[in-house]
Amino acid sequence: MTPPLDAQHGVLLLSCPDAPGIVHAVAETLVREKCTIVQSQQFGSATSGMFFMRVEFAHIDGSPLDLVGLGRRVEQLAETFDLTWQLTDAAGRQRVVIMVSKLAHCLNDLLFRNSIGELNLDVVAVVSNHPDLGRIAENFGVPFTHIPLTKDTKAESEAVLLQLVRDERVDLVVLARYMQILSEDLCTQLERKAINIHHSMLPSFKGARPYHQAHARGVKFIGATAHYVTADLDEGPIIEQELIRVDHSLSPDLLAVRGREAESRALARAVRWHTENRIAVIGNRTVVFP
Q1: Lowest-confidence pick of 49-53, 121-125, 282-286
Q2: Among 23, 36, 119, 138, which residue's beta carbon has the most beta carbons within 10 A?
Q3: Which residue from 282, 283, 270, 284 is spatially nearest to 44, judged by alpha carbons?
Q4: Integer Cα distance of 255 and 222 in angstroms
């Protein structure tokens, strides 16, 4: 049965060892709460023996959901099936910090998409180790925080950032071409709460001027990879990748232009999927329900 258009929607994302009866138990729990399933996706991994499921639901009559009460019922299922789970309001806005250096394309893209309702974010701050992009944040009415960073002040600068994350109750940190390596401690503090965009398909051309390296090698595809941040540089669970065909006619500068397109698209999709509770992590891999 289809709920009213203005009904509150909830999202349940779960993973557990695969076993008979999981889908039935979830559906039965929702029926007991007088809910109807709006959308359901599931995946059983033959290689890992794990089961993943995302269910979007609403009350049949469109009345508000009791997510706290439903959470208690899901906790009972968790004991039976050894579930790892998240239960959220589909319309809930996540509090986000976007980190940048001097490149503006990913920041501008995220703020624009959010301004037209494509993303559902409360961007509480744009943080940068340079002052250059403050004007873009100002144009979108977002606070800008300049946290200077040098080799000698790295620990103090990261402490300021972490305090901001705590004070603003931040749900997600987005590294939108932030050109600094986070410390192992900060990566641990932000585990599963930070997304980075890498300038190529991983594994990649290492070091400076990656598009010039790609040009020198005559690549036929360029791309970008969005992934969760871990202490192992550029080795975190991959969320999304974007691929663009190129040819010999493109100069290094034009390759960089196309690369910026790939970076912006991959990062925006990764942020949207994370904030819509569509990503389950298993080890160093992700299951994404787009």
Answers
A1: 282-286
A2: 119
A3: 282
A4: 8
- pLDDT tens digits along 194-203: 999 998 776 5
- CA–CA dist 94, 264 (Å, integer): 20
Q: Are strands 35-44 and 10-17 parallel, antiparallel or unpaired?
A: unpaired
Burial, 211: exposed, middle or buried (Cβ in 10 Å; 0-12, 13-18, 19+)?
Answer: buried
Q: What is the pLDDT of residue 175?
A: 98
- At which residue do the structure tokens 């910090």 appear? 97
**Residue 240 token pair:** 């999304």
| DSSP structure class, residue 145 | E
Considering only CA atoms, which of 99, 72, 101, 98 is closest in space to residue 87?
A: 72
- The residue annotated as part of the active site, out of 89, 234, 247, 253, is 234
Specify whether 82 is catalytic: no
